Amino acid sequence: MSTTDTRVIQYDHPAQFEPLLPNGGMDDLAAQARPVVEDSLRLQACVHPHTLGQVRRLVRSMNSYYSNRIEGQSTHPLHIEQALHAQFSGQPDIAFKQRLAVAHIHAEQALEAAQVSETQALSSATLCMAHRLLYQILPEADRLTDAGAPLAPGKLRQQDVAVYRHQPPTWASVPQFLDRADAVYARAWWLEQLLVVAACAHHRLTWVHPFLDGNGRACRLQTHLALAQLSGGLWSVNRGLARQRDAYYQRLSEADMPRHGDLDGRGNLSDKMLRAWCAFFIDICQDQVSFMRQILALDTLNQRMATLIQVRAASLPDYRLQAIAPLQHVLVTGPLARGAFVQLSGLGERTGRKLLALLLQDGLLQSDTPKGPVGIGLPLDALHILLPNLYPEAAAALPAA
After folding, report:
1. Interval 326-336: pLDDT, tens
2. How many angstroms separate the Cα of 174 from the Cα of each of 157, 180, 207?
3. Global pTM value
4. Which of 3.40.190.10, 1.10.569.10, 3.40.50.720, 1.10.3290.10 is the CATH number of 14-29+50-295?
């Protein structure tokens, strides 16, 4: 980020970032969003709630990884997993990225726990909360801009900035722009409309650049919260945006453009480019939810579980093919008592208990208590077979120290 104060246009009045929603209505975009809604609702009923809970845990870590990757500050998924258990690297750069990742995960959880009302999810107050929750977790040494300026969690910037070719509004006018955004976005919306409005708010609030730094991360946290009811936490917009990072930045930049003549809406900014950004965003969401529906389809999921155990049994002597049936059972129907799991394996008590302990140690099974029921786990080192292409970075080798 540059703080150069050279500008071509001075934005200091909210009329300058109209339209905030597509001119002439948004029925066409809502129609494009309808399959996303339908597929999202089907996805939430595809497997047992316990298995979906494990998917949500994984997606939360992915949200963090991919949001930071968009900013060019991602670290290996294994480093994130280690940081969640307070295991930080001795290399300062990696440790910093680990702290960023953990801060994002905790901020996302805190946002969801805050029980923000449906009408306030896309408000500027929620955006400020997202920024505050993200940065207040970090030590002061991590809360610095690239220029070394201190970053105040949740506080609007108190100086003018330039962001590449974009000149955001003057710092004194930012509250006026946010008030106007609240008047348009902070409402209850149908689910089809919500995708369109979330896309618009994501661009326009990023365009305002309310904070000295961290605007993209805070906006993506807010977008996650706004879509949480729809997504169920089972698919990640961040994953889609990160996989098309260049296109993401290009579409955002294009939506900054001024109106292209009399046929391009009635606002100061381009209606055509805002619509193009919304269509791109909805396509990203459709791609992600379609992928998750495909990867969590029961028939192929059960087959991949069998393949995983076959692969491990071929190279690890303590793994047994008898683990396949009970693992498939807990995958589909939820946690089992330990004795029932051993019984389903068809193994003798001693051998079955040994296999059970191995699966718990490796993370393919999880339990809340030492003797409680066991449910499915999704360890990072199994994802390349169990949920292929979902989180391919998790299977990559750690970079050399």
Report:
1. 999 999 999 99
2. 8, 10, 11
3. 0.93
4. 1.10.3290.10
